[in-house]
Amino acid sequence: MVVSPQWRSPALWLLAAAVAVGLLDDPLNLGLMDPMRGVMVFALLGLGLNIVTGFTGLLHLGMAAFMAIGAYAFAISSCDIYPFQLGFWSALAVTAAIGAIAGFLLGAPTLGLRGDYLAIVTLGFGEIVQDVLKNLDAITKGTQGINPLPPPSLPWWGENGFGWQEFGSGERPWYWLFLAITLVAVVACRNLERSRTGRGWLAVREDQLAASCMGIAPVPVKLVAFATGAALAAIAGGLWSSLYASTGEPGNYDFQVSVLALCIVIVGGIGSINGVLVGSVAMIGAANIALPKMASWLQQHGWVNSGNVLGSPNNWKYLVFGAVLVVMMRVRPEGLLPARLERKAIAPGGST
Amino acid sequence: MAMESQPSMWVDVFMQQLTTGLSNGMIIALIAIGYTMVYGIIELINFAHGDLCTLGSFLALTLVGLLGMDAWTGLPGVGGVVLLLVSCALFCASLNWVIDRVFYRPLRQAPKLTLLVSAIGCSFILVNVALFWGGIPMEVFGGGVAAAAPKDFPALVSDENLLGATAKMSFTMSDLLVVCVTLPLMVALTMLIRFTRLGKAMRAVAQNPTAASLMGIDVDRVIGATFLIGGAIGGFASVIYALYNNTISFQMGYRTGMDAFTAAVLGGIGSMPGAVVGGLLIGVARALSDGYIEARWTNSVVFGILILTLVFRPSGLLGAKLRDKV
Questions:
Q1: B173 — contact with chain A (CB < 8 Å)?
Q2: Which candidate from A57, A259, A266 shows the least CB-CB separation from B124?
């Protein structure tokens, strides 16, 4: 990894923990592999949002739309009811490219807008994408979603000797593949942050006027951030739909998902890659592990029964996401693992 | 079908869509006023406003259930509607004030995006409260099962056509109710902002909070009053929305909120007359899209209008006149 030799780096600890989960899950019967795949997909989504909102300081409320575009791009280029029928890897490459183009197309006319207006435009885009996917049912199969989708394949030793092996329903190969992709994305984001482009993002975030005086053109710089973030979100969407062998219905990519991505970035520390990783573990862990535990605990003590509105873990999600945003903004807007640079668009003392 | 009747039928259908659109537009305008007042004074897109109105509708349905109001007719029936309007207005006004006090006031000095994120969080919390509220085991909420399902709101106001049963167009009691509540409220609000001390203070804070506080205006109190008034108007809107559409759900605040916010932006955010004009335009646009495009594309049409307005004319139709802020 291209990291400074800091052995205390949280990213390395997280990597070690993820490897440990991968090795020990079966022998210790932890049952963590399945939720961890979701954590890693949302970590990718969070990394994409972090480029837009964290590095570049643009509040983006429509990340779910790019996830949806990715899922459907992956599905249409790979599912056997369409003419393209690409394999997993080429479909994923197409997905990333289409995501980037979509981000570019949304950003080009809107990136001149001020912060809160841009946020609303991205939100509106998210709603329109959902509607289009739902209503163009001749192409997208409407609320049924597109399926089946091909699983990934890797060159490996199989029954017929060495060759391209498709993943089955076992969790293990998926887990390691997602971990590897997340690792590549993390390293790429780190390097991007320190590249000429990334320094441009930070400069525009800190002070757009000063940045443009130093010869950085704000709109192209923001546009690259938008397209890169969208590409990452699209990859997350493609992996997600491949994991379930279906895009699911368009309503799965709603505003709640965009806000979940925002929570992930804000909890961990806006603009901090390690923060995104911690945030996705915390948020997906809260939504998929802690809430069901709480609901069954409430039921065990007889305080609620299963027909009660309080007894279903899904019914608490809005409250958790909302409380996370409110409390973090009030108490610790820089997040749990703040990025090194102090001033943020969203933290106190930042530019508005 | 006779040849000469076709044009007149077309006109009838169009006029009907227009009536429905204008009635819904007035409700949207009332909610839009809440957005535009808050934006005018602290430049915050108060994301939680639509969900505040949802809670107002839920309170109205609770009162209907508790008092058995669906059986009231004649004068008690009218009194019941007035009671709903007053109690929901009081409830939404105080809740909006509390929201400002708890969620927004501590962040006055923070960057705008911090405040916006806090508002989104607040909106999600209110949505969840509405979800739990819908799970209360009361007859009107379906006995507490299926909390997330849309709730039927009893038709307290008759759907009888005031133009006569045989008329081609329909203008019902509910339409009349919308007009009778909305117009006086708008007039009263305009008078309040134009002619009272509080209105003057609100305009001053909207123009320049620092200068206003130097002139001895208690800025936080004025902002609190703005939330109070915006919330009260939202409370009125929540009742007539429920009476007009006869169905409410815990998620409707997002949809109506976006309609109202679009209206506020279209009219020119910060401008009161703009919110009204925008609300009517969005109401009509929705009705025409329902009637002539397809209902399933209507939300996209509204969001399309929102995005195009923000991109090409961010100041909206009436937004250039900065004097009329608040």
A1: no
A2: A259
pTM for the whole structure: 0.89
Chain A residue with CA closest to B149: the answer is A309
A39-76 burial by CB neighbour count: b if 16+ within 10 A, else e?
bbbbbbbbbbbbbbbbbbbbbbbbbbbbbbbbbbbbbb
Q: How much is the average pLDDT of A127-133?
A: 92
Residues 252-271 of B with CB under 8 A from A: 254, 258, 261, 265
Question: Which of A116, A317, A348 lies closest to B110 in CB terms?
Answer: A348
**CA angle in degrees (0–180, nearest 5) for B4-B5-B8:** 110
Are the C-beta atoms of B96 and B103 separated by less than 8 Å?
Answer: no
Q: Taking 70 as the threshold, does the pLDDT of residue B117 lie above it?
A: yes
Considering CB atoms only, which of A61, A326, A346 is closest to B125? A326
Asked if A121 and B296 come within 8 Å (Cβ–Cβ), the reply is: no
Q: Report, as an integer, the average pLDDT of B197-213.
A: 92
Cis peptide before A148 (omega within 30 of 0): yes
B117·A262 Cβ contact <8 A: yes
Give the domain ranges of chain B: 24-141+150-156+167-257
Q: Are B104 and B119 in contact (CB under 8 A)?
A: yes
**Averaged pLDDT, A207-230:** 91
The reported pLDDT for the residue numbered B320 is 57
Residue from A116, A134, A310, A312 whose CB has the most chain B CBs within 10 Å, to mutate = A116
Report chain A's C-alpha Rg in angstroms. 20
Mean pLDDT, residues A187-206 taken together: 90
B127 touches chain A (CB under 8 A): yes
| Beta carbons within 10 angstroms of residue A2's beta carbon | 8
For B122, which residue in chain A has the nearest alpha carbon?
A322
Instruction: Quickly list H helices, A195-331.
Output: 196-206, 208-213, 218-244, 255-268, 273-285, 291-300, 317-331
Q: Which chain A residue has the Cα nearest residue B135?
A: A309
As a whole number, mean pLDDT of residues A232-250 equals: 91
- pLDDT at position A207 is 87
Return the residue in B303, B305, B309, B311 with the most chain A beta carbons within 10 A, the one to mutate for interface testing.
B303
The count of other CB atoms within 10 Å of the CB of residue A17 is 13
Structure tokens at A323: 């409380």
Q: What pLDDT shows up at residue A82?
A: 83
Which candidate in A58, A133, A325 is best for mutational testing of the B interface (most B CBs within 10 A)? A325
CA gap A54, A46 in Å, rounded: 10
Per-residue model confidence (pLDDT) at position A343: 47
* Mean pLDDT value of segment B80-104: 95
pLDDT band at A28 (very low <50, low <70, confident <90, very high): confident
Q: What is the pLDDT of residue B324?
A: 39
Q: CB under 8 Å to A244, separation ≥6 — which residues?
A: none
ipTM of predicted assembly, 2 dp: 0.87
**Distance from the A323 Cα atom to the nearest Cα atom in chain B, whole angstroms:** 6
The separation between the first and the last C-alpha atoms of chain B, rounded to the nearest angstrom, is 53
A124: nearest CB among B113, B132, B303: B303
pLDDT at B164: 75
CA distance B264 to chain A (A): 13
Average pLDDT taken over every residue of chain B: 88
pLDDT at A257 over 90: yes
C-alpha span between B34 and A28 (Å, rounded)? 56
Query: If you write DSSP's letter for every residue of A156-193 in order, what string do you get?
Result: EEETTEEEEEE--S-HHHHHHHHHHHHHHHHHHHHHHH
Higher pLDDT, A79 or B145: A79
